[in-house]
Amino acid sequence: MTQTRTAIGILELDEGREPGYYLRSPRQDSLLNPATFDRPILTEMVEGAFAEAVIAGDPSLEEACVRAARRLVERGAGVVIGDCGFLIRHQAAVAAAVKVPVAMSSLLLIPAMLQQLAPAQKLAVITADSRHCTEDLFCINNPAHRARVVVGGIEGGEYVRNAVARPAARVSIDTIEREVAGCIIRLRAEHPEIGALLFECTGFPVVASALRRSTKLPIYDITDLCKLTIGAVA
Asked: Are 8 and 226 within 8 A, CB to CB?
């Protein structure tokens, strides 16, 4: 049945691997797992999009993102999704270049999520690197709304060290959960009014279910945005 459904096109980062490298099967609940969406996945690597360059916001990557997105649409993708939340910097350029819905980052959800919360509550963005997850990426202009968004990151941990390695290396799910959970605990201690969490990093959905149970908070990530987008065009 998945073969008759609209394909999801994903812009992948350049992990510095040799051509033809075989990666292990995508993890359960991950963005790259077709079972997450019950439909086929198409991927195109964005040339030169190494994790450290994407996180830091290298503007020279924009044209490579556009070219990869066009290749995805030519291959039959019905939507284009980014495999790193920091690709939001290229949202406008990619959306202008293709004639299918584009969702480059879960950060696009921030305005809607703020509306779901009580005015006294805050939204916590959990990111791979809080040093580069700045408010200009939040898609909101109202200073009062911006003040309700707090950011915590896991920079310096094993997950990020492995992500920026060349070639990139996979870490255990236990490691991801431990690092993300620790970040959430620290952030909630500082901001007890947090009412929901948003995962910027596309590597975090694999631990979202476990952390929903432990935090008792709503958690949104890129797979939620992807499901919303593909559901609207299917």
From this structure: yes
